[in-house]
Amino acid sequence: MIVADKQTLSFQAEVKQVLQLMINSLYSNKEIFLRELISNASDALDKLRFGALEDAKLAQNNQDLNIRITFDKDARTLTVEDNGIGMTRDEVIANLGTIAKSGTREFLQQLSGEAAKDAKLIGQFGVGFYSSFIVADKVTVNTRHAGSDEAVCWESTGQGEYTLEEVTKAETGTQVILHLKPTEDEFLEDFRLRNLIRKYSDHIAFPVMMLATKEDEAENKDETLIDVPHFETVNKATALWTLNKSEIKEEEYNEFYKYIAHDFADPLAYSHHRVEGSTEYTHLLFIPAQAPFDLWNRDYQRGIKLYVQRVFIMDEAEHFMPHYLRFVKGVIDANDLPLNVSREILQNNKKVETIRKGSVKKILNLLEDLALNAPEKYQKFWSAFGEVLKEGPAEDFANKEQIAKLLRFTTTHDVGAGEIVSLDDYLARMPEGQDKIYYVTADTLAAAQHSPHLEIFAKKNIEVLLLHHRVDEWLVSHLNEYQGKTLHSVAKGALDLGALEDQDVKNVQAEVDQSFAALIAKFKTLLGDNVKDVRITHRLTESPACVVSDEHDMSRQMQKILEAAGQAVPRAKPILELNPYHALVKKLQADSEQPEIANWAHLLLDQAVLAEGGQLSDPAAFVKRLNQLLL
Ligand code: ADP
Fold it and tell me: Dihedral of the CA atoms 453, 457, 462, 464 (nearest 10)?
C-alpha cells in the first residue's frame, strides 16, 4: 500500500504561530472545528461540481457528492470525509503546510499571547483546517485529487512538523481523521455530533451523513435495514434561500420561518432577494405576525442568522439590522465575508454596512408595499411592531422620511378608529393656510384627547395627532418635519396658527392682550418662581387657563417620562396662559386688588397643571386654597 518513503517537513513559521493561536484562544469555542471541516469539505464538493462543468475527468466523479462523518470509540478517532475535489501532493504542501495569505506575519506580530485578546484577532484571520488541533493531538489527512490516481497522506501532531507519504486511496476526495485528545470524548457521541451537524450545516447544499443507528432503524420499522451498516443524511441539505423565488412555495417560506423563528404562526410577509455586485449576498427576511414577549427587553436577541456561503456562522447577527427593525427574522447569506467572521469584525466592516443598508431598504420597501397593497396586514403589523418602528427616525437618519411615511397615528379626525392615520393622510386633509403638523402628547389617549390645548384646534377644525405612547416624545424630538411641514406641539411656545388666522382677528387679539396687562403683571408677581411667564392665550375656548412649555424647553411630557425612568431632569418652569374670554379670568381682571387674588393665581396654575395630567408639587396647599375659595 505504501508507495514511497515517508518524508518529514517543517511547517512555515507562521503556521506554528497560527496553531498556537487556535489552540489557546478558541478552546472555549472548540466545537467550531467541525463546522470548519464540513465547510472545507463542502467547498471541495463545490469545486468539484464547478470543475466538472468543464473537465470530463472530473465529471466522472461528480455524483453522489456528500460528506460523511464517522467515529471510532476504540481508536478515539473522528473522521470527516468528502468525495470532492481532493488535493495533489503539491497542494497538500501549499495548503496544509504554509499560509499563503499576504500580511500574515504582520498580523501575527500583533498577538499578545493573551487568549482573550487574541481570540478577537483570530476572527480576522480565518480559523480553517488548523482548528482541528483544538480537539485533536494528531491529525491524518488522506487525499486524492479528483483528476489523479495518486493519493497522499499528511500527518501531524501540530508541533512544527508534518509527514507526507504516498498512499493508495480508492475514492477521490479527502478524509480528515482527528485523533482526539483524551479530554474530547464528547465528539465520540453520535447524538452530540448530529446536533452539531444540524446546528451548523443544516442548510448547506450537500448531505452530511452519518451511519444510521439501530435505534433510528427500529423507529423506522425498516427491518431489512437493521444490522446492515448504511449512511443516512443528518442535515436538511437544502439552502432554501439559494433557490429561486419561483421555485419556492409560500408554504415552504412559512415552514422555514417557523423553523428559524420558533414561531407557531406564519409570518406576515417576507423579503427574499439576491444582490449581486461588489458585495454579494442573499437575504431571506421575515416579518413575524406577532410580537415576541421579550421584544422590549434590553437584551432582546435579534433574529438574523448570518451565513457565509451557505455555512452557518452565527445567530443574532445584530449588525445586519438596526434596533428599530429588531423584530425582523431571517437569514443573510453573504458571499464575501470570511467564514470565521466574528462579531468584532462585523462591527466596522464595509461589506456588512452595505448588506445592512440594502436589507433595511428592502424591509422598508416591503412595509411600504404592505401599507399600500395589503392595508389589513399592515394594520396587523402596526399593532404588533408600530411602537418599535417609531424608534426609527431617531436611529436611522438616512431613512427618516420613508419611516415617517410608515407611521400611523390616532388623530382628532376620528378618535375611535384607532391608529390608522398616516402623515400623508394628515397632509391631504390639511386646510389651505395650515403650514404645520400639530400634535399633542399625553400619558393616555383620553388625556391627549381632552387636553385644553386642543380647544382652538377643535373650533377651527384643525386635525391634531394624539400621541400617547411613551416612545412618541422620543419620536417627535427626532422627527421635526415631514414633507417640508414642521411637526409642532400644541403645548409648546406661543400659539401661532400662521395664515389660519386672519389679520383682523390678530389685531383684535392684540387689543385684548393689552387690556389684561394689569392682571398679567399681578399674576407674575404672585406666582414668582413657580412660572417662567404668564400671558394671555387665544388657544382656549372652554378652560380658564393652561400651561405650556417654552419653545426650546423640554416638553412637560418628556420631563415626566425621564423622571419616571429615574433620571434627574432640571425642571423647566411652565408658562401659564390665561383665557381672556373665560368668565373667571374676566372677573379677576375686573377686580385684581381683591384679597383672595393670590389664592386665585395659584389655583389657576395648579388646575392647569392637573388638566394636562401633571402632578402638583404641593397638593395639600392646592386643597387648602380651594377650600378657602369655596368658603
Ligand atoms: P481556508 O479554507 O480558509 O482556505 P483552511 O486552512 O481551512 O483555509 O484550508 C486551506 C486549504 O486547504 C483550503 O483552501 C483548500 O484548498 C484545502 N483544503 C482543506 N480541506 C480540504 C478538503 N476537504 N478537500 C480539498 N481541499 C481542502
Answer: 10
